[in-house]
Design brief:
By secondary structure, the protein is an alpha/beta fold. It has helices spanning about 5-20, 40-50, 65-85, 90-95, 100-110, 115-135, 145-160, 190-200, 220-230, 235-255, 275-280, and strands spanning about 30-35, 55-60, 85-90, 140, 185, 260, 270. The protein is built from 11 helices and 7 strands. The chain has a 5-stranded parallel beta sheet, with helices on both faces. A two-stranded antiparallel ribbon has the order 6-7. The longest helix is centred in the first third of the chain and has 20 residues, at about 5-20.
Length: about 290
C-alpha cells in the first residue's frame, strides 16, 4: 500500500467519524446493529465502527437468492469471525416460509404490479427493525452511501414523491417512536467509488456484483443516469444530496404531526391501519408476518 492509499484510508475514516459527530449519530453507549449484506458498503461501515470502538453487532437477512446469497452469507460470517464481531443471521424462510422471489411471483400471477426491489426493501426494513428491537439495539446502521442518497432523492422528485425525502438524511425518519430503532448512515457523504476503493485496499471478502434482482430496476436506471451526469459534471451527486439536506427541514415540518400507528395484523409501527408488509403478505396465500 503506497502513501496515497494510506492517505485516502485516513481521509475516508475521518470523514465517516466527522459525519457521526456532526450529526450526533452515535455515542459509545449505543448498542449498534449494522445491517450487513455481504457487500462492500455495509462491510466497510461495520469495520470502521468496530475500529472506532463502538459496540457493534452485525445482522444479515438471508434473502434466498441462490449462490449470490450463499456467497454473501459465507463472506460476512468469516469476516465477523475474524474480527470477533457477533453476527445475527435472519433467514427469510424462518420469518415468512418463502423467499422474496416467491412473493414477487405470486403478486405477478395476481396482476399486482410491484417491483422486487420495493418488496425486498419494505420487508427488510421491517425485519431489521423488529429483530434489532428484540436484541435491545439503540441504533441500526446501514451502508447507504452518497450515491444511494442522491438516487433516492432524485427518484422521489421525478416520481412526485418529494415529501418522502423528509425521511432521508444521515439519520432516517421524522417522528420518533419507541418501536422504531433509529437508522443511521455513517457513509452518507462517501461516494460509492470511494467505498469500493476502501474495501479493495483492505481486501474485504465481499461480492462486488450488484444484486441479480436489481438489474433493470428503476433505481439501476437512475444510477446509470447520475453516473453519466457525474462524469460530465463532477460534484453532481454531492450537490443533489446537499440540496436534499437544505430542504429537508421544510419537508419535515410538514410531517411533524404525523402519527405512528400499530398495525392491526402484526403490531409493528405503521402509517395506516395495516402496515405495508402485511398488505403485501395478505396477497400471498400461506404467508404471514412474524411480527409480535
Amino acid at each position: 500500500m503506497d502513501d496515497a492509499d494510506s492517505e485516502f484510508i485516513k481521509s475516508f475514516e475521518e470523514r465517516v467519524e466527522k459525519t457521526i459527530k456532526e450529526y450526533d449519530l452515535l455515542s459509545k453507549d449505543d448498542k449498534v446493529i449494522v445491517a450487513v449484506s455481504g457487500g462492500k458498503d455495509s462491510t466497510t461501515a461495520l469495520y470502521i465502527l468496530h475500529k472506532l470502538g463502538y459496540i457493534v453487532e452485525g445482522m444479515i437477512i438471508d434473502q434466498l437468492l441462490g449462490e449470490y446469497s450463499k456467497k454473501n452469507l459465507s463472506n460476512i460470517q468469516n469476516f465477523c469471525k475474524d474480527l470477533g464481531i457477533k453476527l445475527h443471521v435472519v433467514h427469510m424462510r424462518d420469518e415468512y416460509g418463502c423467499s422474496v422471489c416467491y412473493i414477487k411471483s405470486v403478486l405477478d400471477q395476481k396482476g399486482i404490479v410491484m417491483n422486487q426491489c420495493s418488496i425486498c426493501g419494505v420487508i427488510r426494513r421491517s425485519v431489521l427493525n423488529r429483530k434489532a428491537r428484540e436484541h435491545s439495539a439503540t441504533k441500526i446502521v446501514t451502508g447507504h452511501n452518497l450515491d444511494d442518497e442522491a438516487q433516492s432523492f432524485f427518484m422521489n422528485y421525478i416520481q412526485g414523491r418529494l415529501m418522502d425525502s423528509a425521511r432521508v438524511g444521515p439519520m432516517s425518519g421524522v417522528v420518533r417512536n419507541e418501536r422504531f430503532v433509529p437508522r443511521i448512515k455513517p457513509l452518507y457523504f462517501c461516494l460509492e467509488e470511494e467505498t469500493r476503493r476502501y474495501s479493495q485496499l483492505h481486501e474485504f471478502p465481499v461480492v462486488y456484483d450488484p444484486c441479480p434482482c436489481s438489474l433493470g430496476s428503476f433505481r439501476s436506471e437512475i444510477k446509470g443516469l447520475l453516473n453519466r451526469m457525474e462524469e460530465e459534471l463532477p460534484g453532481t451527486k454531492k450537490a443533489i444530496v446537499e440540496s436534499s439536506l437544505k430542504i429537508r427541514p421544510f419537508l419535515s415540518n410538514e410531517q411533524k404531526d404525523w402519527k405512528i400507528k400499530r398495525c392491526k395484523s402484526c403490531g409493528e409501527p405503521s402509517s395506516g391501519e395495516i402496515c405495508r408488509v402485511c398488505a403485501i403478505l395478505s396477497q400471498v396465500s400461506g404467508v404471514s408476518s412474524n411480527g409480535s
